[in-house]
Amino acid sequence: SSSSAAPRLIGLGWPRTGTGSLCDAAEALKLGPCYHLRTLLHAGDEAWAPWEAAAASQGNRSRRAELAVLALRGHGSAADVPVAAFWKELLDAEALGMLHPNVLFVLPRRPADEWYASAEATVLAGWRQHANGDATPRSSHANRMGRLVWERLLKHNRSRLRLPEERHEVIAAYERHIREVLERAPPERLLRWGPEDGWAPLCDALGIPVPDEPFPWRNGRLSSFREEFGLQEGHLELALRCAALVLNLALPALCFWACCCRAGTGDVEAGDRGNKSD
């Protein structure tokens, strides 16, 4: 049936809450490919279509749920965004029998302050409004991230945040998300989990034996930048390598200039002493 082919595991946590580790773990458990923000980067703009249609289907609960499930077709698990931004639609899909009959929803345990400290410099960076304003054009991927993900999660329609001034607003939205998922998700289908918990809770909830391999705990800020801004694999690392190369080339020149300045200063001081002795 179509419901049995739907994801077996769905993470409802925001980015920077162990979503990459959860995806890697789900694939290691052979649940099938995991739908993650990086899936959209590889699939292209057309992969956003079901999410855009779901967001536009106002007042039609079952249609929104159907479109959210359609977006995840062919994947045995899902986590990160845009999945977390459509958590209501996915819980409705479970209630309407559109998901795997034993689907497991996973909600992270990461404290809000700890999450914000990690997210401010990574996934929230592109959503930030600098003090002097920011009119930098953004890619279609970044525009969709703003409209279909962050506006839904933060529950406002502004295209920028003032950070750190609005830190408390962002943290309140994060905590509200956790609270609302806990209130609406079926308790028997929900697991509170973090990567530090490892295999055991996940495998126990899924009824799967714990594998022998180490738990795939991912904690990379570079991957978060790539996914947020729609950079292709390797682009950010290439930019960093180029910056390091420029620094390596410039450093000897700076040292030579400093030595010349110091030598020139010494000559001037020696001249001054000679003049004084005359």
Number of strands: 5
Structural class: mainly alpha
Read across the widest sheet, the strand sequence of neighbours is 2-3-1-4-5
Q: What portion of residues belong to β-strands? A: 5-15%
Categorize the overall geometry: globular
Question: What is the first-to-last residue Cα distance?
Answer: 103 Å
Helix content: 40-55%
Poorly predicted ranges (pLDDT <50, ≥5 residues)? 220-240, 242-246
Specify Rg, calculated over alpha carbons.
25 Å
Query: What's the pLDDT, averaged over the residues?
Result: 81
The SSE order reads: EHEHHHEHEHHHEHHH
Describe the largest sheet. Answer: 5 strands, parallel
- Quaternary status: single chain
Descriptive notes:
There is one protein chain. With 278 residues, the chain is mainly alpha-helical. It has 11 helices and 5 strands, in the order βαβαααβαβαααβααα. The chain has helices spanning 19-28, 37-43, 49-56, 61-71, 87-95, 112-119, 140-154, 167-184, 199-206, 221-229, 235-277, and strands at 9-11, 34-35, 77-78, 104-108, 190-193. It has a 5-stranded parallel beta sheet with strand order 2-3-1-4-5, sandwiched between helices. Helix 3 runs antiparallel to helix 4 and helix 4 packs across helix 5 (87-95). The radius of gyration is 25 Å and the shape is globular. The relative contact order is 0.14. Mean pLDDT is 81; it is low at 220-240 and 242-246.
